[in-house]
Design goal:
Pfam families: Thioredoxin_2 (PF13098). It is a single chain. With 135 residues, the chain is α+β, with helices and mostly antiparallel strands. It has one domain: Glutaredoxin. Helices cover 37% and strands 27% of the residues. It is built from 5 helices and 8 strands; from the N terminus they run αβααβββββαββα. The strands form 3 sheets. Strands 2-1-7-8 form a 4-stranded mixed β-sheet, sandwiched between helices. It has a two-stranded antiparallel ribbon with strand order 3-4. Strands 5-6 form a two-stranded antiparallel ribbon. Helix 3 runs parallel beside helix 5. It is globular, with a radius of gyration of 14 Å. It starts with 5 loop residues before the first helix and ends with a helix.
Amino acid sequence: MKTGTFSDLETLMEKDPKPVIIHLYTDWCSVCKMEKYNLNKDKEAVDLINEKFYLVNFEAEKTKEKIQFQGRDFKYLQNGNSGIHELALALSRNKDQPVYPLWIVLDKDQKLVYYHEGMLKPETMKQKLMEISAL
């Protein structure tokens, strides 16, 4: 699956506007690992994402660089030995502790069209992404 970064996104959107999938996860999340494995096995879902969307995989607790997104700067918030990225909190509806995995889909105008906390099965994802790509 082709993935990009938030810094790539602005340039890509200027050249070829497409809906954006933001996948928030953490290294310690076992559900995230199972979900990624199942999704990568589904060729139809992978092809759909690669053709019609930009995908940003975002490790919410290990990404430490400053990120500019939708005209704002977000930074890593250190908390003892760990921390969380400010952007993960901004994207999550649960402001105290985001639920992982978290899937956010924005249309080509950067408006929220889909939000899903927790495990997302490839079949459900394909159905939602086909609806979104038809918009």
